């Protein structure tokens, strides 16, 4: 069964500092990969996704993520954090290939809560 | 604008009662999903549907049921609510091969 590990439960950074959130997955092949963000009391919003092609993926709000097959990782980065980035971030994977919605059942990591110091 | 809505947003119920949480999407997505979110567990899949009359169990389906009578709606029913089902519930929808779009969530408390 596939699994997703986000090693950091809580990260605190200063506004303007760079950010990297880690995500490692366990799966027999390359899955589809996603990063979602959840602001307090809100639903999840997609930041970016990787299906194939260029391993550096650009997303919304200035975020990017790099897929590294050799490390089974899909880390999320932002060069300069803004106070509004404080939220919880979830990495998720879905099986590649197959047919129907089953190919896109998401398995989520447990999330990393980001706090930003002004 | 197309959207996905959930109702109610907050619900308090008693142990043993039947509860139904509504999910409605206007994107005409064929796929719909229900997740629960608990501290320390992230989001876990309860049930999902590929289309009308199709339903499937997810990772944590015990005590829950869904039915899909049209494209827009996937209600989630707790047959006999238990305190362990106190959680935040999220509905999501997608076209096959695309990202999932999430609703705002329903906070359910079982007393």
Topology:
The complex is a heterodimer of chains A (118) and B (111).
Chain A: E1 3-5, E2 10-14, E3 19-21, E4 24-26, E5 32-38, E6 44-50, E7 56-58, E8 64-68, E9 73-78, E10 87-94, E11 107-108, E12 112-117
Parallel strand pairs in A: 2-12
Antiparallel strand pairs in A: 1-4, 3-9, 5-6, 5-10, 7-8, 8-9, 10-11, 10-12
Chain B: E1 4-7, E2 10-13, E3 19-25, E4 31-38, E5 42-49, E6 56-57, E7 64-66, E8 76-78, E9 87-94, E10 101-102, E11 106-110
Parallel strand pairs in B: 2-11
Antiparallel strand pairs in B: 1-3, 3-8, 4-5, 4-9, 5-6, 7-8, 9-10, 9-11
Instruction: Determine the oligomeric state from the structure.
Output: heterodimer
The largest pleated sheet of chain B is described as:
7 strands, mixed
Overall 3D shape of chain A: globular
Mean pLDDT reading of chain B: 94
Summing up helix and strand content along with how strands pair, one would put the structural category of chain A as: mainly beta
Unreliable stretches of chain B (pLDDT < 50, length at least 5) are: none
N→C terminal distance of chain B: 37 Å
Shape of chain B: globular
């Amino acid at each position: 069964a596939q699994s997703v590990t986000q090693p950091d439960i809580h990260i605190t950074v200063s506004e303007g500092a760079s950010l990297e959130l880690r995500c490692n997955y366990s799966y027999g092949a390359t899955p589809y990969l996603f990063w979602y963000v959840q602001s307090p009391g809100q639903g999840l919003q997609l930041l970016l996704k990787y299906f194939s092609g260029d391993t550096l993926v650009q997303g919304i709000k200035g975020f990017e993520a790099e897929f590294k097959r050799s490390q089974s990782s899909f880390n999320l980065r932002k060069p300069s954090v803004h106070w509004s980035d404080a939220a919880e971030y979830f990495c998720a994977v879905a099986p590649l290939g197959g047919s129907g919605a089953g190919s896109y059942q998401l398995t989520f990591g447990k999330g990393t809560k980001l706090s930003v110091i002004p | 604008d197309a959207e996905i809505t959930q109702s109610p947003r907050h619900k308090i119920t008693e142990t043993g009662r039947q509860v139904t949480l509504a999910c409605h999407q206007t994107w005409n997505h064929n796929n719909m999903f229900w997740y629960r979110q608990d501290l320390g567990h992230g989001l876990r899949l309860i049930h999902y549907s590929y289309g009308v009359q199709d339903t499937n169990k997810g990772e944590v389906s015990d005590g829950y049921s869904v039915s899909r009578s049209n494209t827009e709606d996937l209600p989630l029913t707790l047959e006999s609510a238990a305190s362990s089902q106190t959680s935040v519930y999220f509905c999501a929808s997608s076209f096959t091969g695309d990202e999932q779009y999430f609703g705002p969530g329903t906070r359910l408390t079982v007393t």
